[in-house]
Amino acid sequence: MSELLSYGFMRNALAAGVLVSLACGVIGTLVVLKRMVFISGGVAHTAYGGVGLAFYLGVNPLLGALVFSLLASLLMGYVQRQTHQRPDTLIGVMWAIGMAIGIVFADLTPGYKADLMSYLFGSILAVTQTDLWLMLIVDVIVIGVVILFYKELQASAFDETFARVRNLPVDLLYLILIAMIGLAVVMLMRVVGLIMIIALLTVPAAIGALFLKHMNKIMWLASGLSLVFTTGGLLLSYYLNLTSGATIILVSGAAYLFALLVRRLCKDCPE
Amino acid sequence: MSPSNTPSQSVVEVKDLYAGYNDETVLKDINLTIEREDFLGLIGPNGGGKTTLLKVILGLLEPKKGTVRVMGKSPQRGRQHIGYVPQFAVFDSDFPISVHDVVRMGRLGPDRLFKSYTDKDDTIVNERLAWVDLAEQKDRPLSKLSGGQRQRVYIARALASEPELLLLDEPTISVDIEARAHIYDLLYEINQHGVTILLVSHDLNVISSYVKTIGCLNRTLHYHGEKEVTAEMLKSGYGCPVDLIAHGLPHRVLAEHERQP
User: Fold this and answer.
1) Is residue A96 within a helix (H) or strand (E), and if so which, with residue range?
2) At B232, is the pLDDT very low, low, confident or very high (cuts 50, 70, 90)?
3) What domain range is B232 assigned to?
4) What is the number of structural domains in chain A?
5) Sign of torsion, CA B178 B184 B190 B193?
6) Residues on chain B touching A149 (C-beta within 8 angstroms)
7) Domain-located, residue A266
8) Is B100 among the domain residues?
9) Residue B130 — pLDDT band, cuts 50, 70, 90?
């Protein structure tokens, strides 16, 4: 273990695990409770367009992903709320177009492009010091916003009509929430890759919701579980020589199945 | 309760209202005045526009024509005086939240952004929970409560806003008969404490024993500010539940001449 920690990339990877877990638990809980899993997947995949564009322009891909992800989240939020088209259709279309844009820009970019794959499947071992700072900033924003608007976010997740009748700014809260999903997506992209983001965003919170009956407690448990999954998956992938992102997701998936089984068998478990 | 306006002012005033969705006009030429301390039961068939009318009063749907005033203000501003009890089971009953925390949502408002709940909020929440007989359940998860108990939680939440008007949309759907009576007794008591109530239901038999006035809504409104279900309401073919007469409408609801052969 101490040998592991002597590697700088491993220290960065473990730190990244801690930082993404915080945002993941907090935002994932809202995503699960507000049933926004599909739209989160849409935001994640659309962000790939930003990665491709950034490669083409020669700027930091995470920056491109950040811009695309925020734009995509706000656009999807708007679509979800305002248009009379079927929102899931439009989100599905944006999802695919975002990916396509990313691939086309990658085609247009001359030279070696293997690094593009790391945004699809994640590369927690390639996390840099700059990435860590970016993750810390996202954590501060996300956790700060949730603390600031906790009671309003809870009320509009529980019963949006009532919140609206109380004259809470529910549309604004929704856009804030979805922009935070966009931010979380960018940091998760580095760790598990955009294809598997949905799992890491939702599984810890879903397990929490199986056993706990308070939103803030679910957030804590989800953050903790997320840390266990990323760290455990990372170590496992190191020793078994597997892809880290996929291993993290498989650890999460196995834990989710196990949690469902426990929930099933133990009807009298304390809640 | 806290009557803050002049006693003469109506709680809700709807004038020449047309409302609906896209091209479809569901409500036509609605005129309705709800006076302070009334307990109005609004009956009518499904699809008759009951929920649409509630949405307009709550400022959730813009009228196509006509005006709506709530406490003399636009619905968007006036609705802060409304305690809204939504239709049963319209949202996730599995949501992880305690009874106390649900009722506390009634204290929320734009002036409460960036501020924590206060001791006064907790006092009011506990008091409302006692009113609806749920004081001992306050720390339980909402999902562990029965349908009738849950409905009382939503009534307590609405009352926590200290409303002038309590507005209920089919509060007893999928609630068993005993719990139903409990809820209506509760509403009767709340009304006695000076809260105006607008109750929407298709269950004329039950509500007729509790309300002060009855209206019948089937796209157009028949309402005369009285308790009687008039011959006009029943005969005019507006689709109001005429068949209920056959099942024995409570006597005091029927107008005098209706009871004569």
Assistant:
1) helix A87-108
2) low
3) 12-93+167-259
4) 1
5) negative
6) 113
7) no
8) no
9) very high
* Residue B225 domain-assigned (yes or no): yes
Task: For residue B225, give both structure tokens.
Answer: 């500010």
User: What does the longest C-alpha to C-alpha distance in chain B come to?
Assistant: 65
Reading the block at residue B41, the tokens are 């039961």
Task: Indicate the pLDDT class of residue B215, thresholds 50, 70 and 90.
Answer: confident
Measured in whole angstroms, the distance separating CA B111 from the mean position of its chain's CA atoms is 25
* A271 within a domain of the structure (yes/no): no
* pLDDT score of B241: 52
Residue type, A15: A
Sequence-distant (6+) residues with CB within 8 A of A149 are: A173, A176, B113
Give A-chain residues touching B112 at CB under 8 angstroms: 151
Domain-located, residue A269? no
- What single letter denotes the amino acid at residue B219? R
What is the maximal distance between C-alpha atoms in chain A? 61
pLDDT tier for residue B61 given thresholds of 50, 70 and 90? very high
Q: Give chain B's domain count.
A: 1
Task: Compare all CA atoms of chain A with the CA of B161 and give the residue at the minimum distance.
Answer: A166
pLDDT at B175: 80
Chain A residues in contact with B157 (beta carbon < 8 A): 162
Q: Is the dihedral of CA B93, B98, B99, B100 positive or negative?
A: negative
pLDDT value of position B9: 80
Give the confidence band of A265 by pLDDT, cuts at 50, 70, 90.
Answer: confident
Provide, as residue numbers in chain A, all residues whose Cβ is less than 8 Å from the Cβ of B101. 154, 214
Instruction: Using an 8 Å CB-CB cutoff, list residues of chain A that contact chain B.
Output: 33, 148-149, 151-152, 154-155, 157-159, 161-169, 209, 212-215, 218, 271
Query: Average pLDDT of chain A?
Result: 90
Would residue B158 count as lying in a domain? no
For the domain that residue B59 is a member of, what is the CATH number? 3.40.50.300
| Buried b or exposed e, range A246-270, using 16+ CB within 10 angstroms | bbbbbbbeebbeebeeeeeeeeeee
> A165, B82: Cβ pair inside 8 Å?
yes
Angle between helices A244-265 and A170-192 (to 10 degrees): 120
- pLDDT tens-place string over residues B157-168: 999 999 999 999
- Using CB atoms, pick whichever of B97, B106, B157 lies closest to residue A215: B97
pLDDT-derived band at B261, boundaries 50, 70, 90: very low
Residue type, position B190, single letter:
I
Burial B43-62 (b: 16+ CB within 10 A, else e): bbbeebbbbbbbbbbbbbbe
Average pLDDT over residues B57-84: 94
Q: Sheet harboring B213-218: ordered strands across?
A: B82-85, B165-169, B196-200, B39-43, B213-218, B220-223
